[in-house]
Amino acid sequence: MSDTDARAALPRTDALLADADVVRAATGRSPEQVRRVVRGVLSRARAGELAVDAVRPEVLHALAAPASSLTPVLNATGVVVHTNLGRAPLSEKAVEALVAAAGHTDVELDLATGRRGRRGSGALVALLEAVPGAEAALVVNNAAAALLLAATALAQGREVLVSRGEMVEIGDGFRLPPLIESAGARIREVGMTNRTALRDYEDALGPDTGLVLKVHPSNYRVTGFTGSASVRELAGLPVPLVVDAGSGLLAPDPLLPDELDAATALADGADVVLFSGDKLLGGPQAGILLGRAEVLERLRRHPMARALRVDKLTLAALEATLRGPVPPVPAALHLDPAEHRRRTAAVREAVGAGEVVPCVGRVGGGGGAGVELPGVALAVPEACAARLRSGSPPVVARVEGGRCLVDLRCVAPEDDARLAEAVRAALVEG
User: What is the C-alpha separation between 63 and 170, in angstroms, rounded?
Assistant: First the structure.
């Protein structure tokens, strides 16, 4: 059959939209969403990417009811750790580990002895191998939970010393004081908003001091006439020092010179360092605590630790993330500029429209405040942004300067063809 005959044999859009099986498969989708799916499949068939007899099955597959109401999207925003898009995408190995752990596992069983084993020991060992300066590790369900556990176990009924310049608010209006107070501890502010010295902590120390909390300003910057006591200075105080490192950098990274990393904080004397697992580390949502064995054991044995512990799926994904290869988040942060431009130009050629323009990406997720990630994006009309979000697959780009910028920084190379197809469809609708 010639190409002309093959195109003539393609089913009509309205015929597919009236197909009883297609209608059933489209449950829960708007008519416009169904129309976009059908048009996208037909476009691929006209381009020779699908055989005529594969069109209907492909439409049914694309419209099949998902197992979850969560919709996978392509992140073309250029924001690497995008909170609204679920923060860190898992590596292939982490996904494999998660799926493998979905059945029965030895998460709390020693197969050699048949007796109860240490829960999630593989992930804990991987953490200690990644940060050799830590004596012990503990994993809970997010960084806020990690801080709540530390404050409860070490300072319940007592005071937590915090610099006024570190009284942070995180997403959705959650603030540090209510979190500490919910642990049954009292916050005692020390120093000034812009300058806090070691002597401010020393003057506030007393019999009611439970711990000193140092919060790294991951999601904001204070500049000008500023100063703060370092971890090394605070480590000399006669109470536990808990450092909230925030974004989950394990070791120094030249790209993020102002981001506090766990290895350095521990080397400087912190008793406990806590951070998120789904930010710069690039793993599943988790709150990770590293530090002195004696202090971590107090936290592990506290009754609250049971309520905050993670499941086997998180432990499996975390271990796989730590053991490599490099997960998507650090890969996107350190994306090769030439490869970024080459891929963007290839998508532009496949789309047949738009313009490759300079742009600036961001770290996101409350990390790397002020750090710019220079790159390029495919610029298309602003109206394409809404069409891309409602397409199949949904593509989340960003609007800037009256244009829709499609940035491939956080798009996996194997998704470039799908991205190009989605952009083509959005342009056709216009």
Answer: 37
Domain ranges of the chain: 3-63, 74-88+329-429, 92-324
Q: How far apart are CA 198 and CA 201, in angstroms?
A: 5
**pTM value?**
0.85
- Residue 290, C-beta contacts closer than 8 angstroms, at least 6 positions apart: 127, 128, 131, 134, 136, 137, 262, 266, 272, 273, 274, 296
Let me know if the fold of 74-88+329-429 is the same as that of 92-324: no
Q: What is the CATH number of domain 92-324?
A: 3.40.640.10
For residue 29, give the 3-state DSSP assignment. coil
How far is CA 251 from its chain centroid? 18
Q: Which CATH architecture has domain 74-88+329-429?
A: Alpha-Beta Complex (3.90)
d(Cα 174, Cα 247) in Å, to the nearest integer?
16
State the residue for tokens 């916050």: 187
- In DSSP terms, 139 is beta-bridged to 288
Give the dihedral sign, CA 317/318/319/322: positive
Query: pLDDT per residue over 107-165, tens digit each?
Result: 999 999 999 988 889 999 999 999 999 999 999 999 999 999 999 999 999 999 999 99
